[in-house]
Amino acid sequence: MEETISLRELFYTLRKRIWMIISIAVVATLASGIISFYVLTPIYSSSTQLLVNKEKSDQPMYNVGEIQTNLQLINTYNVIIKSPAILDLVAKELDMDVTSEQLNAKITVGSEKDSQVLSISVQDADPQMATDIANTTAKVFQNEIVKIMNVDNVSILAQAKTKENPSPIKPRPLLNIAIALVVGLMAGVGLTFLLEYLDNTIKNEMDVEKVLGLPVLGAIHTMSEKDLINGLGNKQQAEVRGESFGV
């Protein structure tokens, strides 16, 4: 016998455990808010830009071949910037007690498509330190690339600066709370249907039909004490009026 579930049954299942769903969503939201505001360390970001250009020469100002060569070099520069040869010098200059691997995890190097501009972004719990790392990395790379590749085609386009009231890029409490609310509701709904699926007790005549596969001919409803008293009172009133009352 094929079982079908109507929208009314789904609604009844959700309504039966609505407080459990709401409780799970509230707990998840509160936990996310507490963790975001009081547990997670705010992380700040600062970035600087480098321009990869051609050396001064007697060639035309805009040499397509030279520009293409510089664009190809950018991928190489991305690797060199995050290499120990650069980062060890950055840590030494800033007097930081960190390894090149730890410093590497703070730095992101990228470039716009078909652009000769390199961007060095740094994330750190201290906004001023993030700025210092970005500027120092750019300066060290500009000086060391002359020795490493024997080229002098890198210039600092824009230095990193620390704002007066910097805002952390993460965590984002409102976003985390919204995600936690949605996840909490989904978890509550999922748990509700799981409990309903595991509950194999017989509660009404519909369950009897499903389990036995037989139609229900009648049902006996439970009467409360109040209903019983009201029923006896109505019977006595009928007897006084001379009316017949069938049981």
UniProtKB/TrEMBL annotation:
<dbReference type="GO" id="GO:0004713">
    <property type="term" value="F:protein tyrosine kinase activity"/>
</dbReference>
<dbReference type="InterPro" id="IPR003856">
    <property type="entry name" value="LPS_length_determ_N"/>
</dbReference>
<dbReference type="InterPro" id="IPR050445">
    <property type="entry name" value="Bact_polysacc_biosynth/exp"/>
</dbReference>
<feature type="transmembrane region" description="Helical">
    <location>
        <begin position="174"/>
        <end position="195"/>
    </location>
</feature>
<dbReference type="Pfam" id="PF02706">
    <property type="entry name" value="Wzz"/>
</dbReference>
<keyword id="KW-1003">Cell membrane</keyword>
<keyword id="KW-0812">Transmembrane</keyword>
<comment type="similarity">
    <text>Belongs to the CpsC/CapA family.</text>
</comment>
<dbReference type="Pfam" id="PF13807">
    <property type="entry name" value="GNVR"/>
</dbReference>
<feature type="domain" description="Tyrosine-protein kinase G-rich">
    <location>
        <begin position="138"/>
        <end position="194"/>
    </location>
</feature>
<dbReference type="GO" id="GO:0005886">
    <property type="term" value="C:plasma membrane"/>
</dbReference>
<feature type="transmembrane region" description="Helical">
    <location>
        <begin position="18"/>
        <end position="40"/>
    </location>
</feature>
<dbReference type="InterPro" id="IPR032807">
    <property type="entry name" value="GNVR"/>
</dbReference>
<feature type="domain" description="Polysaccharide chain length determinant N-terminal">
    <location>
        <begin position="3"/>
        <end position="94"/>
    </location>
</feature>
<keyword id="KW-0472">Membrane</keyword>
<protein>
    <submittedName>
        <fullName>Capsular polysaccharide biosynthesis protein YwqC</fullName>
    </submittedName>
</protein>
<keyword id="KW-1133">Transmembrane helix</keyword>
